[in-house]
UniProtKB/TrEMBL annotation:
Official protein name in the record: Type III PLP-dependent enzyme
Keyword Amino-acid biosynthesis listed: no
Source species: Streptomyces stramineus
Biased composition (Basic and acidic residues): 383-398
Classification via PROSITE patterns: ODR_DC_2_2
C-alpha cells in the first residue's frame, strides 16, 4: 500500500484527540486524480463521481484542476455548481431521473444525461429537448468486482441500438455509449470485454448513419483495501490498448472516465479505539467505537473489506483471529470478511486502531444518531490553505 500523507500519518498517531474521528486529505485525493490523468496519457476526460465524496472544498479543488463532475440528483447538481463547475462539464448519469429532476438540470444548464430504457429517452425528449444522451449498456460479467452492478442498470446490445435510433428520432443528440464494470473492480480485463461490446454496437449504429462520439468507461477503478489491486497504470494500459484494437483510427471516440473510489478512498482514514475485547465460545469479538453506522462503513456490507491496524502494537507480534464490531447494539454493526481479521493477543480496551481507505462514501452514509451514537467528527485538510493546520471539524448534514 502507498504510504499515507504526512498529515494523515500525524492523525493516525496523535493520541491527544478523542476517538472516533476521520481525517481526509484533499491533497491526496488531488494527487490520485492527477495520477489517473497521467496514466491515461490525456486520452480520457476525468469526470469525478460526486457521490463518492461531495465535500465542497474537494469538488472546488478538482474543478480547478480541470475535472468534470458526474452527478445523480438536483442536490449534487447544486453542489457541482457551487464548486464553480461549468454546467457543460456536469453530466447527470441517473437513468431513473424523473421529470422534476430533469427540469432542474435543464434550468441550470446541465444537458448531458444517461438513459437505458425507452421511458427515459422519451422523458428526456419531453423535458430536455436537444439534450445529449449516453446509452448505458449492461455489463453482465461479475468477476473481479466487489459490488457487481448487474440487473438494475443497463440495456442489451439490441436495445442499445434501438435506444440510439429512438434518441435521434426524438431530437436528442447521441453522445455515446456508457457502462459500469462493477465497483472496486480488480480485473482490468473487464473493460476490454465492455469495449469489445461497445465496438459491436457502434458498428450497428453506424449502419444507420449515426456516430458514437464518446465512450464513457464508467467507474470501478479501485481503492486500496485488504486485497491488493493493480496500479492505475495497469488499468490504463489495458483500456487504451483495447480502445486502439476495437476502434482503429480515424473512427476513435473520445473517452470519459468516472472515478470515485479511485480518487478519494485512500485519502481518508478513520481513527478508533477499542471499547472491549470479549471471548465467546464462537470466537473473540473486538468492539470498536467506530462502526458501520456511526462511521459510515456501510460499504462493508457490499463486499468492501477495510484494512484495520493497531499502531500501538508493533508488526510481527502474536495475533489471533477476531471479529471486529462497531459500538451499537445491532448485529449488523459487524465487519464482514472473507478473510478473517487478526488482532494482537495483547490488544486491550483503550488501544487505538486505524481503519484505512475510508475516504469514499463513508462521509455521506453515516446514520444520524442511530442507537444514540452521533456520526464521527470529520477533519479535512486542503492543500495550500491558510487554515490547513487548524483542522476544522466539518458539520454533518442531516
Amino acid at each position: 500500500m502507498k504510504a499515507p500523507s504526512p498529515w494523515l500519518t500525524r492523525f493516525a498517531t496523535d493520541r491527544r484527540r478523542p476517538t472516533p474521528f476521520t481525517a481526509f486529505d484533499i491533497g491526496e485525493a488531488l494527487a490520485a486524480y492527477e495520477r489517473l490523468v497521467a496514466a491515461f496519457e490525456g486520452r480520457a476526460r476525468v469526470q469525478y463521481a460526486v457521490k463518492a465524496r461531495p465535500d465542497q472544498a474537494l469538488l472546488t479543488t478538482l474543478v480547478r484542476r480541470g475535472s468534470a463532475l458526474d452527478v445523480a440528483s438536483p442536490g449534487e447538481i447544486q453542489q457541482a455548481l457551487d464548486a464553480r463547475c461549468p454546467p457543460e462539464d456536469i453530466a447527470c448519469s441517473n437513468v431513473f431521473a424523473d421529470a422534476r429532476e430533469l427540469a432542474f438540470a435543464r434550468d441550470n444548464g446541465v444537458m448531458v444525461f444517461t438513459a437505458d430504457s425507452t421511458a427515459m429517452v422519451e422523458r428526456l425528449a419531453a423535458v430536455c429537448p436537444g439534450a445529449s444522451v449516453f446509452v448505458r449498456v449492461a455489463h453482465e460479467h461479475t468477476a473481479g468486482a466487489a459490488q457487481p452492478l448487474t440487473g438494475r442498470f443497463g440495456c442489451s446490445e439490441n436495445e442499445a441500438v434501438q435506444l440510439a435510433l429512438l434518441a435521434a428520432r426524438s431530437g436528442l443528440r447521441l453522445a455515446g455509449l456508457s457502462w459500469h464494470v462493477g465497483s472496486q473492480q480488480h480485473d482490468p480485463a473487464q473493460w476490454e470485454r465492455a469495449i469489445a461490446r461497445a465496438a459491436r454496437i457502434t458498428r450497428r449504429i453506424r449502419c444507420h448513419g449515426m456516430t458514437v462520439e464518446h465512450l464513457n468507461l464508467g467507474g470501478g477503478l479501485p481503492g486500496t483495501y485488504r486485497t491488493s489491486v493493480p496500479p492505475a497504470e495497469a488499468y490504463a494500459r489495458i483500456i487504451l490498448t483495447a480502445v486502439d484494437r476495437h476502434f482503429p483510427h480515424p473512427h476513435q471516440p473520445h473517452l470519459v472516465l468516472e472515478p470515485g473510489r479511485a480518487v478519494v478512498a485512500d485519502a481518508g482514514i478513520t481513527i478508533t479505539s477499542v471499547k472491549a475485547v470479549v471471548d465467546r465460545p464462537c470466537g473473540t469479538y473486538v468492539v470498536l467505537d467506530a462502526g458501520l453506522y456511526n462511521a459510515g462503513l456501510l460499504d462493508n456490507l457490499g463486499g468492501i473489506e477495510y484494512r484495520v491496524t493497531f499502531p500501538g502494537h508493533p508488526e510481527g507480534v502474536a495475533t489471533r483471529p477476531v471479529t471486529l464490531c462497531g459500538p451499537t447494539c445491532d448485529s449488523l454493526d459487524t465487519f464482514t470478511a472473507d478473510n478473517v481479521y487478526h488482532a494482537p493477543l495483547a490488544l486491550a480496551p483503550g488501544d487505538r486502531g486505524v481503519i484505512w481507505s475510508t475516504g469514499a462514501y463513508c462521509s455521506t452514509s453515516t446514520l444520524v444518531g442511530f442507537n444514540g451514537y452521533p456520526p464521527v467528527p470529520q477533519h479535512l485538510h486542503a492543500p495550500r490553505s491558510d487554515v490547513a493546520d487548524r483542522l476544522p471539524e466539518q458539520p454533518k448534514k442531516s
